[in-house]
Amino acid sequence: MESTPTAGENIGVLRKARGVGQAKLARQMGITVSYLSKVETGIRPATPVIVAGAAKALHVTTARIYGQPFSDPSEQADLLNELRGAVRRHTLPKEDTPQQDELATGLKRAARLRADTKYLELLRDLPKLLGQATATALDSDGDAVAWGQVSDLYGCAYAVAHRLAQPDLADMIVSRQQWAAQRTWNPAAEAAAAWNEAGTYQSAGQYDDGLAIVERAISHFEGARTNGPESMIVLGSLHLRGVVLASRHRDKNATEIHLRHAKQLASQLTADQLVHNLTFGEGNTALYELAAHIELDQPNKAVEMATPLADQPPAGLKPNRVGRFFIDLSRARLATKDLDGAEDALKQAFKVSPQMAEIHPMSREVLRVLFVMHQRTRPDLILMAKRTGLAT
After folding, report:
1. Using an 8 Å Cβ cutoff, are 390 and 6 in contact?
2. Which domains are present in the chain?
3. Rounded (10°) CA dihedral 221, 226, 231, 232
4. Mean pLDDT per 10-residue segment, the chain (392 residues)
């Protein structure tokens, strides 16, 4: 395997570059030397918790450990630079105010591309579209709807920056989303920005700080005393973010509390719905619960819960959620030593959301482990590894 190292490999490289022995690093991370050795050599995957622990001990960012996920980064780099420029010019858009129907078409396309995990296509559209939406809002004399469109577009931009491993850009985008959301006078838009703000802490492995952001956002949103389906979707989504952060922080009690609140809210909706780029309902809540079992070292529970969902994922969920479900299922099956099942789940992820599967750190880690575990002769596995740049 070559070309684009995975997180587990990078931990070993960074450790050696800093002259740190395995015993010392393992002690600082709170794991055994044997476990660390298996992560570095590809027998065990580098989970988000492991990456966060290694980043803290080695005094690097989690992004440095995850590394560059692209086998050919040239196009992505050019497009990301264009997006950086557009985000930097948040009060000085180059674009003029477009026709209303042109902007509406662009906004719908951006939301669809985000949900379909077509990140490169979305990245090509975002700089111009952000400029057009911002110009419209600046010319609108404070129209809340126009600023809401800008806020939601920054939500799409955050998804791209997060998934393409650009944490500094993601931080800047969140600040711009908050800037736009505050001009909407809409608590739901501000809560959606807080959801992404907590996501930046999640990406950095700072789970306790992320939880603090979520809990503050929940308190603020509940204080606004809004009602209706939109409120339930926004509040439920904040609790789901709390489920991820709490489970990675290994706080089982907080995980259960956030999950219980999410389930109560989801039970009042007839189906999963999308508001401000937040998906919420009983189906998505089930997928978050499954992922929490994995983070809390309960892969058997995750596999058991996934059995009916693998054949028929919850109706109404977009590829960004279904693809992530199959990546999580591959993790759970790998943890239960079901190598064939892990490979099958990854194949489903590549089918449903190929761009996500190619660059998601956990799909890459599962692939690396499957290779090391004497699976190199399997044609489908080799094909997936080539698509991720893990093999040539």
Report:
1. yes
2. 7-66 (1.10.260.40), 71-165 (no CATH), 186-297 (no CATH), 312-392 (1.25.40)
3. 90
4. 74 94 96 95 94 95 84 76 96 96 97 95 97 97 96 97 94 98 96 98 97 98 93 98 98 98 97 94 97 97 95 91 97 95 96 94 93 77 87 77
